Amino acid sequence: MAGPLAVAGDVVVDALPYFDQGYDAPGVREAAAALVEEETRRYRPTKNYLSYLPTPDYSAFETEIMRNEFERLAARQPMELLSMKRYELPAPSSGQKNDITAWQESVNNSMAQLEHQAVRIENLELMSQHGSNAWKVYNEKQIQDLNWLRKNDQLAAGSKLREMESNWVTLVSKNYEIERAIVQLESEIHKMKQAQGDENKENIRQDF
Predict the structure, then answer these.
(1) What percentage of the chain carries pLDDT values higher than 70?
(2) Pseudo-torsion of CA 70, 72, 75, 79, nearest 10°?
(3) Is pTM beyond 0.70 here?
(4) Cross-strand bridge partners of residue 13
(5) What residues contact residue 150 under an 8 Å CB cut-off, 6+ apart?
(6) Cys staple from 92: which of 43, 96, 120, 171, with CB 3.0 to 4.6 Å?
């Protein structure tokens, strides 16, 4: 199981919860709680703990409409009233009181406005009944997609780590074998030198 690494005073968590094993092992929860307790003892809050962050750009997400509205508020100008012209049902003018076509157009406009309002009411009722559930379903899918992406990335990283760990074990084993062979060769060389020295001493004795 991977653990936190301290880098330049910050803590970088390198855990891969979708890949790591041993979270349920005895003592793991207690060890994690001890780490949290130790960190809280060392933490000393400052007056402005966000001082290391750059100056925030509050206008980064402003749209043109929002910017115009903020400028209106800053200038203390009144808000433009909502135009109700599209909802008006004008009757024919006094000069068209006897014009059947003008009255037909007025009735058609009234029917269109009535149908438009009926559709709006239906949409509001549907939104009230199903809007929150639809939003929850959308959020759940987003969460599932994000968790799947994290799991896929962590499993890929875990597979790479396992491969590298296997290579490391192989290299360590090879190094151990090489070191053992070197020790054995050095021992044989030492024995050969010792035997050659004993032989030279014996030859010297025979000469005398």
Answers:
(1) 89
(2) -130
(3) no
(4) 4
(5) 18
(6) 96
d(CA 165, CA 159): 10
Q: Which amino acid is at 130?
A: H
Tell me the two tokens of residue 154.
Answer: 């962590």
Least confident of 25-29, 47-51, 98-102, 120-124: 47-51
Query: Tokens standing for 121?
Result: 């009411």
Q: Cβ distance 106 to 89 under 8 Å?
A: yes
DSSP collapsed to 3 states, the chain: CCCEEEECCEEEECCCCCCCCCCCCCCHHHHHHHHHHHHHHHCCCCCCCCCCCCCCCCCCCCCHHHHHHHHHHHCCCCCCCCCCHHHCCCCCCHHHCCCHHHHHHHHHHHHHHHHHHHHHHHHHHHHHHHHHHHHHHHHHHHHHHHHHHHHHHHHHHHHHHHHHHHHHHHHHHHHHHHHHHHHHHHHHHHHHHHHHHHHHHHHHHHHC
- Give the C-alpha separation, 13 to 148, whole Å: 20
